[in-house]
Amino acid sequence: MNELVDAFLNYLSVERGLSRNTIISYQEDINTYIDFLKGTHIDSFSLAKKNDITDFMLSQKDKGLASNSVARRLAAIKAFYRFLVRERILKTDPSNLIDSPKLWKKIPQTLSVNEVDALLSQPNIRNRQGIRDKAILETLYATGMRVSEAVNLKTDNVNLDVGFLRCTGKGNKERIIPLGAKAIASLKKYLGVSRPQQLKNKEIDFLFLNRFGKKISRQSLWKLIKRYAREARIKKPIRPHTLRHSFATHLLERGADLRSVQEMLGHANISTTQIYTHISKERLKAIHRMFHPRP
Protein backbone atom coordinates (compact mmCIF):
# COMPACT_ATOMS: atom_id res chain seq x y z
CA MET A 1 0.00 0.00 0.00
CA ASN A 2 2.80 2.38 0.88
CA GLU A 3 4.49 1.80 -2.50
CA LEU A 4 1.31 2.86 -4.28
CA VAL A 5 1.11 5.99 -2.16
CA ASP A 6 4.73 6.82 -3.05
CA ALA A 7 3.92 6.38 -6.75
CA PHE A 8 0.92 8.68 -6.40
CA LEU A 9 2.94 11.37 -4.59
CA ASN A 10 5.60 11.16 -7.30
CA TYR A 11 2.87 11.66 -9.91
CA LEU A 12 1.60 14.74 -8.07
CA SER A 13 5.11 16.19 -7.97
CA VAL A 14 6.38 15.34 -11.46
CA GLU A 15 3.27 15.35 -13.65
CA ARG A 16 0.95 17.67 -11.76
CA GLY A 17 3.69 20.00 -10.49
CA LEU A 18 2.04 20.48 -7.10
CA SER A 19 3.87 22.25 -4.29
CA ARG A 20 5.69 20.36 -1.54
CA ASN A 21 3.18 21.52 1.08
CA THR A 22 0.23 20.30 -1.00
CA ILE A 23 1.89 16.92 -1.52
CA ILE A 24 2.53 16.61 2.22
CA SER A 25 -1.19 17.26 2.83
CA TYR A 26 -2.15 14.52 0.37
CA GLN A 27 0.30 12.15 2.04
CA GLU A 28 -1.10 12.84 5.50
CA ASP A 29 -4.72 12.37 4.37
CA ILE A 30 -4.07 9.10 2.55
CA ASN A 31 -1.90 7.70 5.35
CA THR A 32 -4.72 8.41 7.80
CA TYR A 33 -7.05 6.49 5.49
CA ILE A 34 -4.59 3.57 5.32
CA ASP A 35 -4.37 3.44 9.11
CA PHE A 36 -8.16 3.23 9.28
CA LEU A 37 -8.26 0.41 6.71
CA LYS A 38 -5.61 -1.56 8.57
CA GLY A 39 -7.60 -1.10 11.76
CA THR A 40 -10.49 -2.88 10.04
CA HIS A 41 -8.15 -5.63 8.75
CA ILE A 42 -8.09 -4.37 5.15
CA ASP A 43 -4.55 -4.58 3.80
CA SER A 44 -5.17 -3.86 0.12
CA PHE A 45 -6.90 -1.01 -1.71
CA SER A 46 -8.57 -3.59 -3.96
CA LEU A 47 -10.48 -4.89 -0.93
CA ALA A 48 -11.80 -1.51 0.17
CA LYS A 49 -15.39 -0.72 -0.81
CA LYS A 50 -17.55 2.38 -0.90
CA ASN A 51 -18.86 1.67 2.61
CA ASP A 52 -15.30 1.52 3.98
CA ILE A 53 -14.60 5.02 2.65
CA THR A 54 -17.90 6.29 4.08
CA ASP A 55 -17.10 4.71 7.45
CA PHE A 56 -13.69 6.40 7.38
CA MET A 57 -15.25 9.81 6.74
CA LEU A 58 -17.73 9.28 9.60
CA SER A 59 -14.91 8.21 11.93
CA GLN A 60 -13.04 11.41 11.13
CA LYS A 61 -16.12 13.48 11.87
CA ASP A 62 -16.65 11.59 15.15
CA LYS A 63 -13.09 12.47 16.15
CA GLY A 64 -14.00 16.14 15.89
CA LEU A 65 -12.36 16.91 12.56
CA ALA A 66 -13.74 20.07 10.96
CA SER A 67 -16.07 19.65 7.97
CA ASN A 68 -13.57 21.35 5.66
CA SER A 69 -10.84 18.94 6.75
CA VAL A 70 -13.12 15.92 6.25
CA ALA A 71 -13.95 17.18 2.76
CA ARG A 72 -10.26 17.66 2.01
CA ARG A 73 -9.50 14.07 3.05
CA LEU A 74 -12.24 12.77 0.79
CA ALA A 75 -10.87 14.83 -2.10
CA ALA A 76 -7.41 13.31 -1.53
CA ILE A 77 -8.84 9.78 -1.46
CA LYS A 78 -10.81 10.43 -4.67
CA ALA A 79 -7.70 11.74 -6.43
CA PHE A 80 -5.73 8.71 -5.24
CA TYR A 81 -8.31 6.21 -6.51
CA ARG A 82 -8.51 8.00 -9.87
CA PHE A 83 -4.75 7.58 -10.12
CA LEU A 84 -4.97 3.85 -9.30
CA VAL A 85 -7.63 3.32 -11.99
CA ARG A 86 -5.69 5.36 -14.54
CA GLU A 87 -2.59 3.27 -13.88
CA ARG A 88 -4.73 0.10 -14.20
CA ILE A 89 -3.87 -0.98 -10.68
CA LEU A 90 -7.60 -1.06 -9.89
CA LYS A 91 -10.44 -1.75 -12.31
CA THR A 92 -13.05 0.31 -10.47
CA ASP A 93 -13.06 3.40 -8.26
CA PRO A 94 -15.04 2.80 -5.04
CA SER A 95 -15.00 6.53 -4.23
CA ASN A 96 -16.66 7.47 -7.51
CA LEU A 97 -20.21 7.32 -6.16
CA ILE A 98 -19.46 9.25 -2.97
CA ASP A 99 -20.52 12.88 -3.20
CA SER A 100 -18.31 15.53 -1.70
CA PRO A 101 -20.12 17.45 1.06
CA LYS A 102 -21.44 20.86 0.10
CA LEU A 103 -19.68 23.36 2.29
CA TRP A 104 -20.38 26.99 3.03
CA LYS A 105 -17.38 29.01 2.02
CA LYS A 106 -16.16 31.14 4.87
CA ILE A 107 -15.82 34.80 4.04
CA PRO A 108 -12.17 35.66 4.69
CA GLN A 109 -11.24 38.37 7.17
CA THR A 110 -9.99 41.55 5.51
CA LEU A 111 -8.56 44.87 6.61
CA SER A 112 -10.02 48.25 5.74
CA VAL A 113 -7.94 50.62 3.64
CA ASN A 114 -7.17 52.65 6.76
CA GLU A 115 -6.02 49.52 8.60
CA VAL A 116 -3.77 48.57 5.69
CA ASP A 117 -2.30 52.08 5.71
CA ALA A 118 -1.64 51.78 9.44
CA LEU A 119 0.00 48.38 8.98
CA LEU A 120 2.22 49.51 6.11
CA SER A 121 3.36 52.60 8.03
CA GLN A 122 4.76 50.62 10.97
CA PRO A 123 8.25 49.60 9.69
CA ASN A 124 11.00 52.02 10.70
CA ILE A 125 12.56 52.91 7.34
CA ARG A 126 15.53 54.55 9.07
CA ASN A 127 17.15 51.14 9.49
CA ARG A 128 17.85 48.35 7.03
CA GLN A 129 15.43 45.84 8.55
CA GLY A 130 12.60 48.37 8.47
CA ILE A 131 13.39 49.16 4.82
CA ARG A 132 13.17 45.44 4.00
CA ASP A 133 9.97 44.98 5.99
CA LYS A 134 8.34 47.96 4.31
CA ALA A 135 9.23 46.51 0.89
CA ILE A 136 7.76 43.13 1.85
CA LEU A 137 4.47 44.56 3.14
CA GLU A 138 4.05 46.91 0.19
CA THR A 139 4.74 44.07 -2.26
CA LEU A 140 2.26 41.73 -0.60
CA TYR A 141 -0.52 44.32 -0.65
CA ALA A 142 0.31 45.61 -4.14
CA THR A 143 0.21 42.15 -5.72
CA GLY A 144 -1.99 39.93 -3.56
CA MET A 145 0.74 37.31 -3.55
CA ARG A 146 0.70 34.36 -1.19
CA VAL A 147 3.36 34.45 1.53
CA SER A 148 4.88 31.26 0.06
CA GLU A 149 5.16 32.99 -3.32
CA ALA A 150 6.77 36.11 -1.87
CA VAL A 151 9.55 34.24 -0.07
CA ASN A 152 10.42 32.45 -3.32
CA LEU A 153 10.64 35.63 -5.40
CA LYS A 154 14.01 36.18 -7.04
CA THR A 155 15.59 39.46 -8.02
CA ASP A 156 15.20 38.75 -11.73
CA ASN A 157 11.44 38.20 -11.20
CA VAL A 158 11.02 41.93 -10.59
CA ASN A 159 11.14 44.60 -13.30
CA LEU A 160 10.84 47.94 -11.54
CA ASP A 161 11.34 49.95 -14.74
CA VAL A 162 8.23 48.43 -16.30
CA GLY A 163 6.44 48.00 -12.97
CA PHE A 164 5.68 44.28 -13.02
CA LEU A 165 6.82 41.13 -11.26
CA ARG A 166 6.73 37.49 -12.36
CA CYS A 167 5.32 35.13 -9.77
CA THR A 168 5.33 31.33 -9.67
CA GLY A 169 2.20 30.04 -7.96
CA LYS A 170 0.50 26.71 -7.32
CA GLY A 171 1.27 24.00 -9.85
CA ASN A 172 4.35 25.98 -10.96
CA LYS A 173 2.08 28.29 -12.97
CA GLU A 174 3.60 31.68 -13.71
CA ARG A 175 1.66 34.92 -13.73
CA ILE A 176 2.57 38.56 -14.26
CA ILE A 177 1.32 41.05 -11.66
CA PRO A 178 1.58 44.86 -11.86
CA LEU A 179 3.24 46.83 -9.07
CA GLY A 180 1.98 50.16 -7.76
CA ALA A 181 4.15 53.26 -7.38
CA LYS A 182 4.54 52.88 -3.61
CA ALA A 183 5.62 49.25 -3.88
CA ILE A 184 8.11 50.16 -6.61
CA ALA A 185 9.57 52.96 -4.48
CA SER A 186 9.91 50.66 -1.45
CA LEU A 187 11.53 47.90 -3.51
CA LYS A 188 14.00 50.35 -5.09
CA LYS A 189 15.05 51.57 -1.66
CA TYR A 190 15.39 47.99 -0.39
CA LEU A 191 17.44 46.87 -3.41
CA GLY A 192 19.62 49.98 -3.30
CA VAL A 193 20.22 50.28 0.46
CA SER A 194 19.12 47.38 2.63
CA ARG A 195 19.66 44.24 0.55
CA PRO A 196 23.33 44.93 -0.32
CA GLN A 197 24.04 45.26 3.41
CA GLN A 198 22.23 42.00 4.13
CA LEU A 199 24.14 40.13 1.42
CA LYS A 200 27.50 40.68 3.15
CA ASN A 201 29.46 40.01 -0.05
CA LYS A 202 27.53 36.79 -0.75
CA GLU A 203 25.59 35.96 -3.90
CA ILE A 204 21.98 34.85 -3.59
CA ASP A 205 19.11 35.15 -6.08
CA PHE A 206 16.21 35.36 -3.64
CA LEU A 207 14.75 38.84 -3.33
CA PHE A 208 13.86 39.02 0.35
CA LEU A 209 16.62 38.05 2.77
CA ASN A 210 16.89 37.59 6.52
CA ARG A 211 19.48 39.33 8.68
CA PHE A 212 21.98 36.56 7.94
CA GLY A 213 21.80 37.20 4.21
CA LYS A 214 19.77 34.05 3.48
CA LYS A 215 16.30 33.54 2.02
CA ILE A 216 13.65 34.68 4.48
CA SER A 217 11.38 31.86 5.68
CA ARG A 218 7.59 31.76 5.51
CA GLN A 219 7.47 31.59 9.30
CA SER A 220 9.62 34.71 9.69
CA LEU A 221 7.55 36.63 7.17
CA TRP A 222 4.34 35.55 8.91
CA LYS A 223 5.67 36.66 12.31
CA LEU A 224 6.69 39.97 10.75
CA ILE A 225 3.12 40.63 9.56
CA LYS A 226 1.65 39.74 12.96
CA ARG A 227 4.12 41.96 14.81
CA TYR A 228 3.39 45.02 12.70
CA ALA A 229 -0.37 44.40 12.95
CA ARG A 230 0.00 44.35 16.73
CA GLU A 231 2.02 47.58 16.65
CA ALA A 232 -0.66 49.15 14.42
CA ARG A 233 -3.22 48.14 17.10
CA ILE A 234 -5.29 46.16 14.64
CA LYS A 235 -7.74 44.08 16.65
CA LYS A 236 -8.87 41.78 13.84
CA PRO A 237 -7.34 38.29 13.60
CA ILE A 238 -4.32 38.47 11.30
CA ARG A 239 -3.48 35.48 9.12
CA PRO A 240 -0.87 34.90 6.40
CA HIS A 241 -3.43 35.64 3.65
CA THR A 242 -4.94 38.75 5.27
CA LEU A 243 -3.18 41.18 2.92
CA ARG A 244 -4.04 38.92 -0.05
CA HIS A 245 -7.72 38.95 0.91
CA SER A 246 -7.62 42.70 1.44
CA PHE A 247 -5.94 43.25 -1.96
CA ALA A 248 -8.71 41.36 -3.78
CA THR A 249 -11.56 42.95 -1.82
CA HIS A 250 -10.30 46.51 -2.26
CA LEU A 251 -9.86 46.02 -6.02
CA LEU A 252 -13.38 44.65 -6.46
CA GLU A 253 -14.89 47.37 -4.27
CA ARG A 254 -13.35 49.96 -6.56
CA GLY A 255 -14.70 48.43 -9.74
CA ALA A 256 -12.08 45.92 -10.89
CA ASP A 257 -13.53 43.08 -12.97
CA LEU A 258 -13.54 39.58 -11.52
CA ARG A 259 -11.48 38.01 -14.33
CA SER A 260 -8.61 40.45 -13.84
CA VAL A 261 -8.56 39.84 -10.09
CA GLN A 262 -8.67 36.09 -10.73
CA GLU A 263 -5.62 36.37 -12.98
CA MET A 264 -3.66 38.47 -10.50
CA LEU A 265 -4.46 36.09 -7.63
CA GLY A 266 -3.56 33.04 -9.71
CA HIS A 267 -6.86 31.25 -9.07
CA ALA A 268 -7.48 28.32 -11.41
CA ASN A 269 -11.24 28.62 -10.94
CA ILE A 270 -13.14 31.90 -10.92
CA SER A 271 -15.52 30.53 -8.26
CA THR A 272 -12.62 30.82 -5.80
CA THR A 273 -12.32 34.52 -6.62
CA GLN A 274 -16.07 35.09 -6.31
CA ILE A 275 -15.89 34.69 -2.54
CA TYR A 276 -14.54 38.25 -2.41
CA THR A 277 -17.71 39.62 -4.00
CA HIS A 278 -19.60 38.33 -0.95
CA ILE A 279 -17.43 40.49 1.30
CA SER A 280 -18.45 43.60 -0.64
CA LYS A 281 -22.11 42.60 -0.45
CA GLU A 282 -21.91 42.07 3.31
CA ARG A 283 -20.29 45.48 3.70
CA LEU A 284 -23.01 47.11 1.60
CA LYS A 285 -25.64 45.46 3.80
CA ALA A 286 -23.92 46.79 6.92
CA ILE A 287 -23.82 50.33 5.49
CA HIS A 288 -27.46 50.05 4.47
CA ARG A 289 -28.48 48.96 7.96
CA MET A 290 -26.44 51.76 9.52
CA PHE A 291 -27.64 54.68 7.41
CA HIS A 292 -31.01 53.83 5.82
CA PRO A 293 -33.94 55.44 7.63
CA ARG A 294 -35.90 52.17 7.42
CA PRO A 295 -33.23 49.46 7.79
Spatial strand arrangement across the major sheet? 1-2-3
CATH architecture of the largest domain: Orthogonal Bundle
Number of individual domains: 2
Helix content: 55-70%
**Shape, principal axes of CA atoms:** globular
Secondary structure category: mainly alpha
DSSP helix count? 13
How does this structure look, described?
- The chain is mainly alpha-helical and 295 residues long.
- It folds into two domains: 2-86, Orthogonal Bundle (DNA polymerase, domain 1), CATH 1.10.150; 113-289, Orthogonal Bundle (hpI Integrase, Chain A).
- 57% of the residues lie in helices and 4% in strands.
- It has 13 helices and three strands; from the N terminus they run αααααααβββαααααα.
- The protein has helices at residues 2-14, 20-39, 50-62, 67-86, 113-120, 128-143, 147-151, 181-199, 218-231, 242-253, 258-265, 270-273, 275-291, and strands at residues 158-159, 164-168, 174-178.
- Strands 1-2-3 form a three-stranded antiparallel β-sheet, with no helix packed on it.
- β2 (164-168) and β3 (174-178) form a beta hairpin.
- α2 (20-39) packs across α4 (67-86) and α6 packs across α10.
- It is globular, with a radius of gyration of 23 Å.
- The chain starts with a helix and ends with a helix.
- The model has no long low-confidence stretch (mean pLDDT 86).
Summarize the structure.
With 295 residues, the chain is mostly helical.
